[in-house]
Design goal:
four-stranded antiparallel sheet; mainly beta; single chain; 11 strands; seven-stranded mixed sheet; about 45% strand; globular
Length: about 120
Amino acid sequence: VQLQASGGGSVQAGASLKLSCEVPGSTFSSHSLGWFRQAPGKQREFVGVITWTGSSTYYADSVKGRFLITRDSAVNTMYLQMNRLKPEDTAVYYCAAYREPQAMGINPADFGSWGQGTQVTVSS
């Protein structure tokens, strides 16, 4: 099952956006969930991850203090609140589930259920 990110758009630098990722219930309750992004000509990079319990999060240094990952178990949805956006945040954003249940990592190769992603464009 693919996880589908949504909520992208085009904004000015300094603005905020909130992305959503709907997750199957069985995955939501037992797998860590991550956000990644890929800019044109670059490799997919880690943005942040939240554990299967929602008790812990971890962020890339480039977004720490600006981005926040949350999850709502009532609707099995993960969110990425992006604040103070910069032009270098421009990318396609993806959500994915960590392959191993009740574990966490940041390597994209250890995640699965990738969807098509959602485009975020930040202009200066």
